[in-house]
Queue: 3 jobs
Job 1
Amino acid sequence: MDASAAPLREAWYYAAPSARLRRGGVLARKMLGEPVLLGRDDAGDVFALRDICPHRGMPLSAGAFNGQEIECCYHGWRFGRDGRCTAIPSLVSGQRFDLAAVSVPRYAACEVQGNIWVFFGEDATTAPPPPVLDSFAPAAAPRLIETMRFDSMIDHAVIGLMDPAHGPYVHRAWWWRTRRSAHEKAKTFAPAPFGFTMQRHAPSSNSRAYRLLLGGNVETEISFRLPSVRIELIWAGRYAIANLTALTPVDDQTTDVNHCIYWTAPWLSALRPILRPYVRAFLRQDATIMERQQQGLRFNPVLSLIDDADTQARWYYRLKREYQRAGAERRPFANPVEARTLRWRS
Ligand code: FES
Ligand SMILES: [Fe+2]
């Protein structure tokens, strides 16, 4: 894989739903090809460490965590939440060994609105921060979360999910849309921090369903931001819904698509059991098409991205390239996206 296709390291990635990690618990994850241990300590704070014991390579997540320290299951070496080694039980008195020489690499971790994010780079202060949904309280948590693993490298997973032209072909379903429902669309886009936004507008499709569910006039705004976050906000009357889709590279070939839905209308929670199979079916359609696409991509074909349907894909590549360059040249990121109206038929 050439360097530009590798996932951005100076970036926060979605790691897990907060609710999956209890106090005194750990979770094992693979992100950006690295084994990651997520933990929540006694005080409720999350942390992330490389999930490999520096002694002889045992996954630390297989050990015991007491809310303060993690003990490796092989020879009992212990590590603090900062990754520093605190004890080597096999040492006897008189054997001098500097514990400070042993540590596990630590990643920055944080929680935002019910999700845990991990940072892989050097400087989190200049990186795009994990997204905060303005219409929702800081303590809000997703009402529904679905994660699906895609056999697709991160770039194709990202542009596949932003792609406006595949809907009528891939997501054909009686409850969603048919090929015949395709029509011409024009949407206004503007640059946004580390990405771009499809400006607030009345949605053409599905608006009837939203109006029935929520009442009031429906408006929607969709934004994308590096490294791989898409946010769709829907307002109707006093209520708001947000679809947060955050993609995490598992390794060079695989991407986790994490889809979180937030809503403020309390009665929508009653629909959750009905909603979940729809969300899964929708994601499954994308996963299947991208798996098939891999069969062609393996031959490294030259691709033809066209205006305007593929413009968002081009913006993604330009944003990513600029972010890599700005980092290499140690200068501020300059958003390459220009305000524009894009037109396509879908
Ligand atoms: S491998 Fe972890 S203590 Fe030996
Ligand atoms: Fe799709």
Job 2
Amino acid sequence: MRFWQNFRLRTKVNIILLISLAGLLSTSLIWQYRQHQRLVFSEASEKAEIIITEATRTREYISRQLQIGQIELNEDRYGMIPVVVANRIGRLVSEDLTYSIRHTSNRFRNPENAPDQYERKVLERMTNRASLDYVAEVTEFDGNPVFRYLQAAYADSSCLECHGKPDESPQFLRNIYPPEKDQAYNYKIGEVIGAVSVVIPIAQIEKRLAHGFNTTLVTTAGFFCALVICLGLMIRKTVVTPLSVLSQTIDDIRQTGRFTEAISRDTHDEIGDLVAGFNAMVSELKEKTGQLEESETRFRLMTEIARDAIVAFLPNGQMFLFNQKAEKIFGYKENELLGESFDRLFLPDEESYVPSLSSFIAKAPEQWFEQEHHLIGLRRDQKTVKLKMSIKIIDTGEYPFFMALLSTLDANS
Ligand code: HEC
């Protein structure tokens, strides 16, 4: 926090803007990435649904044609069994395209249809939960990102011909898959026999979508950068620059003691009010200082026409006025002594004034000020001069000071 307080306003604004830029960019990046993932998912889902619908319709169509043509299935016509047709067509098509489709089951009949690890788990879930019609997700397959879609295949009365009671099944089927070895008999209506399983590599889809993703990314980044730059320029113009002009002006006044021209007020917001307030304050101060300087000049003129030498000093001994007659007595010029101690005008061995003349005066009893005192002055040329002095306390309120009236006792000076 200490660090932060020491930063200039401009740095703070820049830091805040940079942080917001990073925040905005990363949020939009995350959001767009999610959007992208969702798009990949929905594209793949759509594809999978098409493939599955096609396979299912093929199966149903073959099944109907067999009925209409009253075609008896036998070992030679094994390739006409609807599931077999669907699987084989699927295999043929997936050789041309990148996806794969097949029927599988945990109680598989043909070992070629045995489920892989992923399919086995999904099938278990489907068997245990009747409402789970399908599972769709992005996972890995042989180390590649893929979209997998499994749709449950339920047993209806048509299926039971070959998956129901073994003794009601066609003889050729029992020959190939003897009931005592086969696990795909004895299903009941509504039971999950297996699933249609589709695997779609998503690298291709991702590649296609990545281009659009990159374009939006560049556009958003550009947009946010432009936004932040505009904001930065605006804050700089409306806040930072006027404030630094103000503080620069205050600095100038402090260093030179001269009041500057009014700062131009460009806006009517809080900053504008601040500038206007500052200008009003400066012009008021200017006026007051003028009055003060005038009264100071009057005071000085009065000390010059006085008969005595006059030296004015603060309670700590610092001199701030030294009139011409004093200059003549001591041989100093006023500007050599301003701010110096009153004590240096006298010989230091004035025992009665302990520890020093000015500190004595600061605490002297009232009647001391009513009397005249004789002292030995010390001139600039180190010669001494006998002096008569009376001191007055000038109590103007907050800052009292002393005024020493001095005249020489030597007849020749
Ligand atoms: C005419 C007999 C017959 C009918 C009717 C039939 N099937 Fe099959 N089914 C088979 C045969 C034979 C296989 C083995 C396929 C192979 O060798 O690829 C099989 C395999 C399957 C498989 C793949 C897993 C495995 O056991 O190899 C699923 C899933 C399946 N059938 C579901 C169904 C469903 C659902 C129905 C009803 C809509 C159905 N079958 C109707 C004979 C049939």
Job 3
Amino acid sequence: MSLSLNLSITLSKRNLPAQAENVLKGNLVQRVFVLSNTQQPLMPCHPARARELLRQNKAAVFKRYPFTIVLHDRETGYIQPIEVKLDPGSKTTGIALNLHGKKGIKTVWAANLSHRGHQITEAITARSQQRRARRSRNLRYRKPRFLNRAKPKGWFAPSILSRVHNCETWIYRLIKMAPVTLSAIETVRFDMQLMENPNIAGLEYQRGTLLGFELREYLLQRDNHTCQYCGGASGDKILNIDHKHPRAKGGSDRLANLILSCHSCNGDKNATLIPDWLKQVKKSKSKLNIARAKRLPGIIANKVNALRDAAAVNATRYKIGDIVKASGLPVTFWSGGRTKKNRTEQGYQKDHWIDAACVGESGERVFIAKSLKPILISATGHGSRQMCRVDKYGFQRTSAKKNSCVAGFSTGDIVKAVVPGGKNKGTYTGRIAVRASGYFNLKSENIVIQGIKHQHCQILHERDGYNYH
Ligand SMILES: [Zn+2]
């Protein structure tokens, strides 16, 4: 018999100890960051407590996004360890703060950070097209200037670097706002070292569920969720892990000997060697066996898929890991396979910030309240350095921008505008685009209001390169 593991993953109920469940339940919402009067980070508090402190005039608002208060009279306070966790993604990065309390670990703050890699790629393509057009516009030949430049070692494309910088910015911001003492970051999708040399962590680890889980995830990805023997011709939805060279005949558990197989193929092949099975299969004229006969020679020739290193190990994530290390925090590096195991075993849904909360060893038992909603942060950049806008032919359309600050306001500031009369009468909150005339455009949720006088605006949050929802 060739050994097979069933791949259906059952979602167990939240795997929390009963005591922790009792103590931690309740209406957990995003905590408010608290600073001491010397601007040292103290324990984040419940919004209700923050409102009370503000009402009693014991604290003042330090920052709106993320909401931070500063205490007037306290210099220190009781501090528990807080761990910052990161699940870096190409479009969105999940961030979570987990509090290590006496009664267990819980997520107290979370965010989904959207990157702007795509916008950067577009802007750079547009710039290179402009330059190419300009070079060829005059008749005299000009050598392209970019071909003589070597990329330095460790070079990252600007779109990718922006993701790294976004993560860096937020890690350093969180360190300033909360007493962060630990960090965990998901650096690789699959722990290849663990899978290739299962012996490294001892027998118990090998037999445990962790390796099995990560292996299944890896094989599902590598073999594209399809039976490799029949290519899905059997219509069998149940997928197993099969040993190409059967274990009964001395086949190993190494990755190269493992393959994704449907239940029917797995049963049909049993402990036969693949060349022998091919001979049997060729005798039959059924559609399924014809499909198998086509694919088996490739498997015998060892033409198995291999997830490219680039897919399994991500240079960007390591770069982010280096940045966290440089901040001086102790870092745990983690793999995506293990994060998923932590998340599914506790019955949490898939979301970037939830994945982040489940990264690391403390992610095995973490309480995430259903009422907790992440703050949505999107990178907006810091405006354009283009000195003047051009028309579609590349000719100057406007004069050079003189100043980016008008009456103390900058484009991107979040303001509250109270317009007492006129056609724009009303109260609005949103981001402004400043105009030299002193009449600004204000963009709130989904509308743009034009011509709001600067005298009617009050700054809530100065531009910092991010938008908040
Ligand atoms: Zn099959």
